[in-house]
Structure to design on (103 residues):
């Protein structure tokens, strides 16, 4: 096989890999996510790691970059609950845990 053909095939394979990575999302920031994704990640942490301990809600953090933010930062589960519409009241921790699927 001539060397020119090998170079052309290699370039074609590279182009296909780049196109596939673009469509799969390989070029996006791994920390860019929606509010719902960040909330679900934090809730999974509350349920699995913290055993639904509502006192841990302010300590659970998810690194994310939401639209409009210049760079990724840590968002607490309490902050995410407020953004999801859980009212900030006396029962906030219990309501936030309930929104995460905790009893």
């Amino acid at each position: 096989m001539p060397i020119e053909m090998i170079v052309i095939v290699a370039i074609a394979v590279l182009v296909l890999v780049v196109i596939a990575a673009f469509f799969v999302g390989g070029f996006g920031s791994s920390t860019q996510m929606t509010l719902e994704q960040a909330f679900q990640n934090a809730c999974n942490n509350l349920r699995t790691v913290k055993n639904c301990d509502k006192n841990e809600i302010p300590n659970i953090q998810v690194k994310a970059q939401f639209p409009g933010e210049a760079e990724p930062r840590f968002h607490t589960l309490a902050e995410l609950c407020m953004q999801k519409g859980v009212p900030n009241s006396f029962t906030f921790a219990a309501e936030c845990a309930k929104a995460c699927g905790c009893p």
Residues 1-29 form one domain. The chain has a mean pLDDT of 86.
